[in-house]
Amino acid sequence: MDDTPLSQHTYQTQNEYIKIEVYFSTLDILVNSLNERFQQETVDIICAVAKLINLEFNIESSNLFQRFFHVVAENLEAEIIILKNMKDTPRPIGNSVSTIHEWLDWLSIKGRADIFKQFLQVLRIFVVIPVTSCSCERTFSKLSIIKNKLRSTMSQDRLNSLLFLFVEQKMTANVNIDEVIDQFKLMVPNDRRLVL
Question: Which residues belong to any copy of the HAT C-terminal dimerisation domain (predicted)?
Fold first, then answer.
């Protein structure tokens, strides 16, 4: 089975060989890549916010909130105690983004944002933090497709417009071309340059 063994282990079957040499090594690479990509600190922040939307608070979370969200931990803890005692607060089912948006909607009613400032600040900042840089990387890869050697003299406005159309292909696919043509027909000849 193993003509040139690199290790002292011998495999009894082809399945065992594939399981150890391919499957397990691929799993190791994936797990290590995920650990490198998502630092433990990021995971801790996500867990702390998940506990926060469930109105749970502890010392470790308070340190993270102070360091990354610039809130006063004592004030945040007081706000959570008040929120626990209120009857009409959102009751989360799991830890999802929709629950965070429910909280943001609830806080926007009747001046609640002024009362629960620390809680609102944590949620607002957390919602806008990107989890990965994949969307940015995708945009840059598409940039190299749009701005190539043949289009090197393109203006910045045109590049932005074409890049927007290329990145947002789902939105572009929903544009009714007949309406655009009709709008173009109605324009005065001098105004017929449509902004992309």
Answer: 102-171
